[in-house]
Specification:
The chain is an alpha+beta fold. It is about 25% helix and about 35% strand. Helix 1 (about 10-25) crosses helix 2.
Length: about 140
Amino acid sequence: MAVTKPWWAELESRIFTIYKTKLNKALISRFPNLKCTVSPMTKAASKFPTAYLHMADWIETGNDLENTETNAIIGTLQLDVIANTSLDDCKEVVYESINILKSLRFNIVGMPIYTANNNLYTGVIRFRRVVGNGESL
């Protein structure tokens, strides 16, 4: 017997596809090696800047009395942007990412935190929103 996936199982993939398409459209001329990923590790050679978008914390909400269905998810995404050229380049990718995720109705949970280490510039930011069953993104 085949197992039926819950509606939210493909949510990260759907969000990532929209995000990657919009980010590439906005920045590929400025950053031809821009890499968007949902994978924390890869065997491929590193490309910069890299935007790593991943689910950080997803919580069920809007339960019915019988608790048999997932009606909504409170989703938290974390974005890690890594650049090897400058902090300004890192910030540019973060700012465009903010525009994209805000257009998908995600709220910023905490403002970006930037670090620099060994010529790698990193920006980390989290977003959150409620996504209901059957809702389009």
